[in-house]
Amino acid sequence: MSRLVAHFDVHYPSFHLSVSLDVPTSGITVLFGPSGSGKTTLLRCLAGLERSSAGFMQFGSDVWQDEAKGMFLPLHSRPIGYVFQEPRLFPHYNVRSNLLYGYKRIPVEERRISIEQVVTILGIEHLLERRIHKLSGGEQQRVAIGRALLTSPKLLLMDEPLTSLDIQRKQEILPFIHRLHEELRIPLIYVSHAISEILHLADRVVLLKQGKLVGVGTLNEALTSLEYRGSFGSLRVGAVLDARVASHEPQYGLTQLEFKGQFLFVPLQSEIIGQSVRVHILSSDVSLVVGRTDAATSVLNILEGTIIEIREMDRSSVDVLLDIGAPLIASITRKSFAILGLKPGQKVYAHIKAVAINEELTE
Amino acid sequence: MTEIDLSALWVTLRLATITMVVLLIVGTPLAWWLAHTRSRFRPIVEALVALPIVLPPTVLGFYILVALGPYGPLGWLMNFTLAFTFTGLVIASVFYSMPFVIQPLQGAFEAAGKGPLEVAWSLRASKLDAFLTVISPIALRGYISAAVLGFAHTMGEFGVVLMVGGSIPGQTKVLSTTIFEHVEAMEFAQAHAISAFMLIFSFLVLLGVYVANRRFPIHVS
User: Fold this and answer.
1) Is B220 within 8 Å of A91 when comparing Cβ atoms?
2) Calpha distance A223→A229 (Å, rounded)
3) Does ipTM exceed 0.90?
4) Shortest Cα–Cα distance, A64 to chain B (Å)
5) Domain range spanning residue A227?
6) Are residues A281 and A343 in the same domain?
7) I need a labelling partner for A142 at 20 to 30 A (CA). Which of A219, A320, A343, B7 fits?
8) Which residues of B touch A49 (CB under 8 A)?
9) Which residues in chain A touch residue B130, judged by CB atoms under 8 angstroms apart?
10) What average pLDDT score do residues A289-295 get?
11) Neighbours of A320 (CB within 10 A)
12) What's the topology of domain B3-215?
């Protein structure tokens, strides 16, 4: 599998970034960390907007930077699309000219993405002849994304493209980003500090802290690693599952999802049977039952799992990492933990009180 | 206007136009550097560029005269003098009007920032391409102000011209020195005619700039 390999050492008077990265080029990689962790600097290094004296960057088989050999490709010679935090549209051009700025500058034989395609995916057909200052923030950012896509990049970099937008606009653009990734299959590296964006988009997560790499893993590995989960702030995610719609029960207002042979009920969805849905479970919504009780329960979602690891979080709570075919974390009280006498390797049943579909997630 | 006055007008317009063009060409990279450098030499260069605003023109004129004269570095090296020539006058005017071109350009470049440039690079535009197609249109107002102020300020110079040029008819005699000479010779009517012409001309030029700025605002969202 094609990989992105990079190493950067950047020294500023008040900031030092030192990162070695080796990730697959496919899919959506989210660079995540608190502000000041070096996410944007790392992205700018990948693009060639910052140059470090000992930098190295290889994308697939193409080397873009190798300072040991004095080699550095400037951004305009790299097949990269870059979407900045602010839309940064050119004020002296209208929407169409903005979109075509990069398109006109790539050789005809390299144009894999057409204007019609981009305009349709982003839903900006009606804006083409508008002047920039007549657009809303969300519309501007969509045009900026389209403008970057029209250079038919081999790698798309996005630096918190939703930060400057309100929650409604975010909900409007997130599906577009997801859709363009699914339809155009361009590897995407996405900088974010918003957990909702990660849950929605990420295939893998690169965790950064104070200019250092903390960890790299798939979304589920990162979120359900007892090591890393402190990095994600107060939102205690227990699991993110890529499930499939198995059946609908409209008479109860429910949809049944299938996930590795186990089933979950969620409120009725519009997706058709067989379609994939990403759901997440908060660790505080998971309670544990030892041994199958035959007593009736109102809880619909009961998953069987094995305890992998136990970690005490604070004076009152304990995080229990389970294997249910994928990692799942349950946050329980220390008292329950002591009463149940939980041990690694033990079989338990996880009762899940709520399953959220990512589209509903707000912060 | 007499024939001498007309030739002074011609010299003046030629001088102002050439000075303006030279300054826009030289001033663009210098203003760009000043707008974006983190070098510790920046305040020194800024102070040097701004000097003509505060110095008496005669001081500037005196040193340029010495530098361009037969005993200056140029004259000493190549046995060659530019003092009291039109070329010498252009060189002097370039220094004298420099702040009036550099400062609007620098301000425009600072306002534009590096953002649009980075975007253009990410859209496969080379550095020159990005500058021509993105930065210069965004900085258009700065260019208009710089061109007009550079031109008008050169037209209005007196002390430097007198020191370096020496008011030789057809070569270095410009309108401002002509007015002075008419007054010296008690020819108030001629002095008045040229003065009124310069007053109206300058007003119209500035009016044109302000109207244009209002008419064609650059929309920065």
Assistant:
1) yes
2) 6
3) no
4) 14
5) 3-232
6) yes
7) A219
8) 118, 121
9) 76
10) 75
11) 28
12) MetI-like fold (1.10.3720)
